[in-house]
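User: Run a structure prediction on this.
Assistant: Running it now.
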Amino acid sequence: MSEKTKRIFLGLCIIVPFLIYCVYYYSAMVKNAPYRFSDFESIEVSYGFPDSMLNHYDSKTKAYSYLTKEGELIHDTLRLRDDDLLYLHRKAQELGFWNVDNDMTLPDSERQNGKRVPRYKLTFTYKEKSKTVIMDPDYNGNPKMLEAARTTVDEVMRMMASVKAR
């Protein structure tokens, strides 16, 4: 066997099994991923003060109701496209939304100076499971988890505003 043939044989013995293993390993991971966009059903967001969370959006029913600055409750229809929902799904995945605590709220006794602070409830619903996070902006838990939840809520709100502007 020539030197060139030995190198080709050695390369094939190492590289081909490695590539086969990578395809097998990662295809199983993607197939068993807990939150896949192919299983995605809807996003639901509610926000407002804890005693009256009047602002609400559900992407399944496309119903959007919000409170204006004048105190008037407006009911509207807001349709997010599949690209918008895919973007929000990927953004939540990128930010680690699936790993944050479900309850990130403060008891009324821990509120600073008794002031009213808005509360957000964000739910991503999939065929077999869903992830719901209830969050207060002044939550004093893990700051990285709070930032992931806050950024995800901000992205959903920004996307809703841009769809409403269309």
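The chain has two domains: 1-32, 37-165.
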